[in-house]
Amino acid sequence: MTKGILFAFLAFAFFAWGDALVKAIGHGLDPFEVTFFAYILPLLLSPVFMTRGDRVGDLLRWNRPWLMTVRLVFVAASTPLSVMSFRSLPFAEAFAMIFLMPSLVTLLSIVVLKEPVRWRRRLAIGAAFIGVLIVARPGFRELLPGHFAALGCAFSSAVVVITGRMIGHSEKRFTLIGTVFLSTAVASGLLMIPGFEWPTREQWILTVGFATTTFAAQALFTLAAAFAPADRVGAAQYSQILWALAIGAIFFDEWPDLLSLVGIVIVVGSGLFIFAREHAQHPDPIPDLIPEPVPGEEPEISSESLPEPRPEPGFRPPARP
């Protein structure tokens, strides 16, 4: 388990440094262009995630096409939105708003999956939204497009989590990973056409660095999921806020004020509590564990009876992801 947790912390460190490279690129390139070039390399290298019996054609062979389509639409939206937020907001502030994702997952669980949510998690959701308001301070500071992009990224990531629960183990792991790279590259490639500009040498270096860290993070995340339970792997994502504070201060001269730090602590603390409660309700399962049918009755398999998948590489949580 220790090895898995170490891989998880390394994966989220790579994610954080990749986001720092995005911020360094700045507004010189269209966000869809940055996303496209960043996901071409992982797409070309995605066969390394194949196991025995997997085929490249599995990328387009889905058992639950409607759920997969919804999932991939929101996966493809999450990375460009995160790029937009990191380019226009202080690093730690963008992370704090994206970390609203666990609260949105719980809200969607109530609406979509009809799950009961007790008062503790309801209070944590409210606290998370208060924390975001403290960070953004609408009415006291100008709301930038990056704020809305960060919230959009959090919502998109939450939808990916919910659809992942509904998909369960009905799709191959390589299908879930590879289609993320494929859908993100295709969607961003089409959307970048109107604003396409050939990158400069410096932009190429930063973009290739972003692509490399993205693939390395996904590979480390896959190893982490193989060696450690989902709750330990997922909780490691909150180490990104520490990287964000350090990178923002050292490289971008971003020093959050006291109120921003208070808001960040509230959002992260609420997210950790919700994350722990979510995994208490959806424990990491034994693979392919499906309830035994009662003799003489048709087995009833619903999205709720399917086990929850382990954390998905290919989708950065959040995030990216």
UniProtKB/TrEMBL annotation:
Keywords: Membrane, Transmembrane, Transmembrane helix. Residues 3-136, 145-275 form the EamA domain. InterPro entries: EamA_dom, EmrE-like. PANTHER family: ACYL-MALONYL CONDENSING ENZYME-RELATED (PTHR22911), BLR4310 PROTEIN (PTHR22911:SF135). This is DMT family transporter. GO terms for cellular component: membrane. Residues 283-321 are annotated as: Disordered. It comes from the Bacteria. Residues 284-294 have a biased composition (Pro residues). The chain crosses the membrane at residues 34-53, 65-83, 89-111, 123-140, 146-167, 174-193, 205-228, 235-252, 258-276.
